[in-house]
Amino acid sequence: MRSAKLSLVLRQLRDHGPRSRARLAAELGMTRSAASALVAELAELGLVRAAGIERGGVGRPGTSVELDGSAVCGIGAEINVNHVAAIALDLAGNVVAEHRLPLDAHRVAVDEVLDRLVELIERTEADVRARGGHVVGATVGVAGLLDRTREMLTVAPNLRWRDVPVGAELRGRLGAAYPISIDNEGNLAAIAEATPGDPNRQDILVIFGEVGVGGGIIAGGRLLRGHQGYAGEFGHMIVDQGGRRCGCGRVGCWETVSGLRALLDAAADPDDPMRDPAMSLDDRLVELNRRADLGDMRTIAALDSVGGWVGVGAAMLTNALNPAAIVLSGYFAEIGQRMRPAIEEHLLGGVVAPQAAGTRVEISTLGFTAAVRGGAAVALEAVFDDPTIVASPPAALMGGAR
After folding, report:
1. At residue 331, what are phi and psi to the nearest 5 degrees?
2. Which of 35, 116, 224, 293 is the most exposed place for a label (fewest CB within 10 A)?
3. Does residue 158 share a domain with residue 22?
């Protein structure tokens, strides 16, 4: 019961910002003395701190409190076609450590990809410890269909992986006691975009683009996983029946016309330096933007064409789900402003309801970090569920398991 009340206070501060003890008591339906005692306990755990004087209320102004937790971190990590990455966020969402390694994952053995990812997780955790903090858990996002019960990556067309027991493999490397969980990267990106307490971000679709295209559905502030957990595989909607064969084996999937590969094919010849696999993803996107800035007609036409296909798929999703916003993440976030006119044109033309049913097109500010940030946020949920766990950091996360 005590942990549940501490959780209520901590979540209220996360979702609604700094509050006085009196205001917390009123909002949570408890006495002021009870709220004060809970705040004092959270302060002892290092999870909240004083945040100045709260003014504008009835009666005497009180001292407000806010999330602290600067020494408590969650790690988010990711396996994608072009890279592996890891990030540590503290309880307030601040970046404490971050590492990313370019990697042509579909050309490298599975074991090597997992080894590189574990190295990044360990480096990130070491950075946190060097700053006097500790990690409460880690969540890894993978690009493909995931059986969460078995933590098995069942099908990953762009990675060219099938039936890889990612959870077991990572625990074998990190230690069986390491508190790690596995999820789909699109789901994690959606979680990162669903800002707690922001009413405009409680019913959204997140479209996460790289070589493949996926995403997540947030309904009423919660991630919608579907019956078997496979919701959000937007990239495999059939939109072009006479089109290209997809990595999944079918023809005309949305990602064949809206993924990064489609954009590069339209914008550059095979011998163009931008098509060199050695060129990093970030550098490719910088070059695309540079050419568009210079008025290169082929680049502009490619952006318009791919943006139009993004709009076609967005309209299909809007007709089915009517989100408040469609958030463009991943590579779309880096060049989405240039695609936006074409996306919005096809969204308006393809949605049956007037004015695209009120659905907005938004560009993520998180870009390629969305999935790892979402992973870190999921790992930190353990603290919001039971703040007392920070009193005894897991030995496995303090170097005891390795």
Report:
1. -65, -25
2. 293
3. no
- For the chain, what is the domain count? 3
Which residues form the domain of 6?
2-67
Question: Rounded CA gap, 123 and 118, in Å?
Answer: 8
- Same domain, residue pair 216 and 340: yes
Kindly state whether residues 216 and 333 are assigned to the same domain. Answer: yes
Q: Is 132 found in the same domain as 108?
A: yes
- 204, 205, 141: which is closest to 375 by C-alpha? 141
Per-residue pLDDT of the chain (402 residues; tens, 9 = 90+): 789 999 999 999 999 999 999 999 999 999 999 999 999 999 999 999 998 776 655 555 678 999 998 899 999 999 988 889 999 999 999 999 999 998 888 788 999 999 999 999 999 999 999 999 999 999 999 988 999 889 999 999 888 999 999 999 999 999 988 999 999 999 999 999 987 777 888 899 999 988 889 999 999 989 999 988 889 999 999 999 999 999 889 999 999 999 999 999 999 999 999 988 788 888 999 999 999 999 999 999 999 999 999 999 999 999 999 999 999 999 999 998 999 999 999 999 999 999 999 999 999 999 889 999 999 999 999 999 999 999 866 554 544 444
* Predicted TM-score of the model (pTM): 0.89
The reply to whether 43 and 95 lie within a common domain is no
> Where are the alpha helices (H) located in 131-259, listed in sequence order?
166-174, 185-193, 254-258
Domain with residue 41: its CATH number is 1.10.10.10
Those residues with Cβ within 8 angstroms of residue 64's Cβ, 6 or more apart along the chain or in another chain: 18, 19, 20, 23, 50, 51, 52, 53, 54
